[in-house]
């Protein structure tokens, strides 16, 4: 009898549990609440940041980066001289050796300086054809000048000797005698020298990319290569007297003659204005690179550019220069400024570093730019 009682009690408990489960299930079924979510869709992956100047890289402008190394790097006083020998790599206009120099400063900023010295085409050839060793220590390159805002910068000094404003990639036998007369190896010289800069100073806090005359024009070609080597470093570009004023057909002519057309993006229909200026190209550069600022410098009637190389005269040069500078600043008011002086002299950052323009000394104008000061404004006489 006790066993039968336990069996009946167990059945009662089990049946009660089944009834409760059934009731619970019935209540759940009659409930109109929606089923719990099975999960939240993940946020879409952010679009990758566009690569500045990617189209130019696709067109081949950076193909020589990493291709050439100096045959000799020799300490000379406070600097190191890097020489590339002769052959299929870097060369000067008449076939001489290309050489460049680096100098270690006391800060972490890097100045890349492109020397000036004319230009050479089949129509007019007035250009420096040898690369002088060393670094000329005057103006912005003087490490002992207390007024020089770049005095303590590391320096990569790029001599100019290719006749093609650091852009050319072609050799010419002009008289057909089987001997090369013009070695336009500017792109190889530029690429090799910038590789040295990148290897010597791999992590600068800021880059000042600057040059005067042909070196000013050269900053146009150096910029995408510098950005390739230093993808995240702020670049302050100071173009001294190579600001891209020309006339219809001139840029097309020299680009074709020097085999430098790859530097103009195929997608940019307005990089060269109908008047022949590079105003649109400079706006393209600023649009591509948000970590870039530009400061352009010129006299109003620069005789070297207006008369010698363009042949348009000072008045026509001035009439084109002023609105071109205003146009770029209007498009990029936070990242572009100009310094425009009276007269027809040529270049500032070495020969006229202490000149006052519009109430500001040239060296101070550059200092305000490098410091990010609100005092960095466009000035004109």
Provide a short characterization of the protein structure.
About 30% of the residues lie in helices and about 20% in strands. With about 375 residues, the protein is of the alpha/beta class.
Annotation keywords:
381 residues, globular, 10-stranded mixed sheet, alpha/beta, disordered N terminus, two-stranded antiparallel ribbon, Rossmann fold, 16 strands, 9 helices
DSSP, total strands: 16
CATH topology: Rossmann fold
Structural class: alpha/beta
Tertiary shape: globular
Can you tell me about this structure?
The chain is α/β, with parallel strands linked by helices and 381 residues long. It is 31% helix and 18% strand. It has one domain (74-375): Alpha/Beta hydrolase fold, catalytic domain (Rossmann fold), CATH 3.40.50. The chain has nine helices and 16 strands. The radius of gyration is 32 Å and the shape is globular. The chain starts with a helix and ends with a strand.
Topology:
Blueprint: H1 2-30, H2 54-58, E1 72-76, E2 79-83, E3 99-103, E4 110-114, E5 118-120, E6 125-127, E7 154-158, E8 170-172, E9 182-184, H3 186-200, E10 207-212, H4 214-229, E11 235-240, H5 250-257, H6 279-288, E12 292-299, H7 303-309, H8 314-331, E13 336-341, E14 356-357, E15 360-361, H9 362-371, E16 379-380
Parallel strand pairs: 4-7, 4-10, 10-11, 11-12, 12-13, 13-16
Antiparallel strand pairs: 1-2, 2-3, 3-7, 5-6, 8-9, 14-15
């Amino acid at each position: 009898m006790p066993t039968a009682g336990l069996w009946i009690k167990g059945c009662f408990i089990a049946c009660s549990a089944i009834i409760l489960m059934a009731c619970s299930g019935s209540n759940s079924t009659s409930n109109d609440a929606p089923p719990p979510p099975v999960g939240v869709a993940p946020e879409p992956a952010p679009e990758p940041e566009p690569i500045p100047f990617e189209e130019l890289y696709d067109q081949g402008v950076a193909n020589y980066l990493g291709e050439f190394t100096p045959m000799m790097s020799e300490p000379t006083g406070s600097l190191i001289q890097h020489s590339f020998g002769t052959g299929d790599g870097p060369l000067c206009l008449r076939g001489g050796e290309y050489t460049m120099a680096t100098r270690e400063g006391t800060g972490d900023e890097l100045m890349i300086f492109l020397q000036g010295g004319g230009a050479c085409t089949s129509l007019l050839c007035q250009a420096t054809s040898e690369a002088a060793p060393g670094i000329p220590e005057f103006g912005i390159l003087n490490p002992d000048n207390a007024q020089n805002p770049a005095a303590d910068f590391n320096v990569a000094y790029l001599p100019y000797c290719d006749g093609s404003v650091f852009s050319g990639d072609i050799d010419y036998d002009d008289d057909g005698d089987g001997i090369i007369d013009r070695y336009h190896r500017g792109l190889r010289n530029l690429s090799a020298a910038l590789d040295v800069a990148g290897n010597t100073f791999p992590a600068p806090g800021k880059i000042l990319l600057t040059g005067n005359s042909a070196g000013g024009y050269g900053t146009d070609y150096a910029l995408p290569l510098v950005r390739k080597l230093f993808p995240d470093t702020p670049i302050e570009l100071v173009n001294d007297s190579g600001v891209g004023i020309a006339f219809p057909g001139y840029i097309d002519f020299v680009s074709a003659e020097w085999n430098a057309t790859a530097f103009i993006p195929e997608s940019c229909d307005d990089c060269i204005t109908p008047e022949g200026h590079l105003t649109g190209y400079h706006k393209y550069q600023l649009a591509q690179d948000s970590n870039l600022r530009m400061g352009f410098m010129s006299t109003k009637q620069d005789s070297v550019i207006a008369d010698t190389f363009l042949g348009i005269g000072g008045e026509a040069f001035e009439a084109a220069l002023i609105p071109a500078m205003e146009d770029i600043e209007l498009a990029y008011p936070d990242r572009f400024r100009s310094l425009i002086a009276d007269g027809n002299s040529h270049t500032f950052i070495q020969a006229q570093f202490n000149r006052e323009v519009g109430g500001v000394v040239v060296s101070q104008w550059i200092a305000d730019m490098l410091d990010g000061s609100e005092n960095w404004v466009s000035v004109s006489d």
